[in-house]
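worker-3 :: picked ESPL1 protein
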Amino acid sequence: DPEGERPEAPDGIRCSLSSDRALSKPLDEAFSLWKKLLENPGIPEVRSPEQTVSSLQLLAALYQLQGKPIQALESLLLLLSLCRRLGDRLGAAECLCQLSRTLLQLQCPAQAQV
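worker-3 :: tokens ->
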């Protein structure tokens, strides 16, 4: 295998490390923007809080699909913060479930229990 490439996947798809970085860059930029928007207390001034919740859920899911659980956790923590600010108890509970699931995948049962 050429240097910097992963072994061939069963379906014949090859992924290079540089293509992984290229795919991650827009997600990382989006995360940075959401983090900046949500760093201040209170409900952020956004056009649609529901759309913002959906965007953060999608961001976390995309990080999971890329095999980046730490970034997924960080995205889920932003989502949890937003859900709590909005008084969205169901959304916060769903987010806590996703956080626990991700922590269990990382073999961190004590943190998942908390």
